[in-house]
Here is the input.
Amino acid sequence: MRVDCFASGSGGNCYRLSDGETDILIECGIPKYKILSDIGYKVGRISGVLISHEHGDHAISAKDMIGWGLDVYASAGTFKALGLSGYHCKPAAHGEVFSVGTFSICPFDVQHDAAEPLGFVITSRVTRERVLFFTDTYYVKYVFRDVDIIMGECNYSLKTLRDDLPMNRRDRLFESHMSLEHFLDLLDSYPQVKKIYLLHLSDDNSDAEMFRREVQKKTGAQVYVCAAQGGFT
Here is the structure.
């Protein structure tokens, strides 16, 4: 399974997942022109777009994706918050499995200050690999079997939290985003994971190298940190 990062963080999020037969985008929180460039102007190769929630850094180009004729999958609450409807809007709900090309996708609810946010478990019928994707949630209350790859938010650490962070921002951080400490706890349920992609690191309250080192030490897996402007650090 191939993972490409086009952007990750509060400035925008967009990832491509490919099993060699089907390509999908996860999030479209960057301008459509950058997405078009990142996919090599090959819109026809994209079989669908998954959106976790309506915040702009995850969904700013959702209307454009629909305009390109792509099917967009998100919760009914997300579509309502975005003011989007129509044939290419495909409502997804917790526990209701759907297919996009050779991918089987199971949405699940997550904890964030959004209308109806979702994470996704994505299984390829080609490679037989399973991906767990979550972002913008302070914990994941479910455990999924046979996960090979984790694409998960690791936004901040209690060790790297700025001392001068205003209390209102601190409270929102604790209630809406995942810390390194919670991420490490989550990994106890996935001893078999082979690859881990750390997403959505905070601009001010993270340390990419420390996060990579701590996750690698915990799991022995290959660990990649998704960079704000795309690629991996």
Summary: Residues 2-225 form a domain with the Metallo-beta-lactamase; Chain A fold (CATH 3.60.15.10). The two ends are 19 Å apart (CA to CA).
